[in-house]
Amino acid sequence: MRANTIIMIVLAGVFGVLAVVLANIWLANQRNALAQANGVPRDTVVVAAVALKFGDTLTAEKLHEIAWPAGAVPAGAFKTTKELLTGDSKQALQAIGANEPIIATKITGPGQRATLSAVLTEGMKAVSIRVNDVLGVAGFVFPGDRVDVLLTRTVRSGDGPDKSFVDVLLQSMKVLAVDQVADESKDNPTVVKSVTLEVSTKDAQKLTLAAGAGQLSLALRQAAASQGEATERVTLADLTGDTPDDVAARQAELDRQAAAAAEAAAERKRADDKLAGLAQAVDRVGSRLDDLSKIKPAPAVASAPQVKEIVKEVVKYVQPEPPARATVGVFRGIKLETYDVPRQK
Hints:
It contains 5 helices and 10 strands, in the order H-E-E-H-E-E-E-E-H-E-E-H-H-E-E. It is α+β, with helices and mostly antiparallel strands.
């Protein structure tokens, strides 16, 4: 047998024994815990027999009582179903899981209904803001989530380009409802048109004023991140690293190019108008020529012969006077010599 095989068998045996020992220790601890629990005083607590969602009416069929350590009963819990159902009918104000204790803060009180006002914290207000499929975090905001509210504004400047910036208006705001749904058990993303937030009176004033001052958008926070953080304004310069002067210079260049393009377009339009005018003039001349060619000429009428006076001209030849001198040429060998001599009469 090979040495590697023997080593593997020995290791398997050691791990097997170790697993048995650890299992015996765990079972012993569980027996001790059960033995200690038998001596603890017991009480009863009302829990949900089935999962409940926002607005569900509580009935005896949806509740049951279970044993609970007397010293660990949750605050606001009910001991009996009869105690819970006494008085007006009660409804769930939030999602309650099966076998979860029914707490007074999770259900409506005497005379209450399962409305949005019933889930508001004391001293807080509910304010709705309009969002779209993008500004509403693409529909992934649900009741119970916490969000930051961002305000985007554009300030017009008379001596330069418009300045746009984004501020964090509010932080860690609890979402009470999405559209008209306040059920926290809702988990399917949907495109929403409005989100209702739980805010203080001053924050409600800020939201109302900001809705008309610019564009509101949401930033979804981590579920456990409820504390605020230091923020600062973000401008266009933060996007590209340019200074306001750089942005102004770039905008001026863009305006210059736009003006040049507009001037070129106007020049082309003027040239096109001239060509169109020439074409219309040519068409009018052609139409006139066509009209003239269709007119038949009037027949010619022979006029009476006119008497013309005949003038007879007499041409007389005059013999010109001969020249007084003449040129005479004499060959001397092969050389021609000329002499100017008087002409003989």
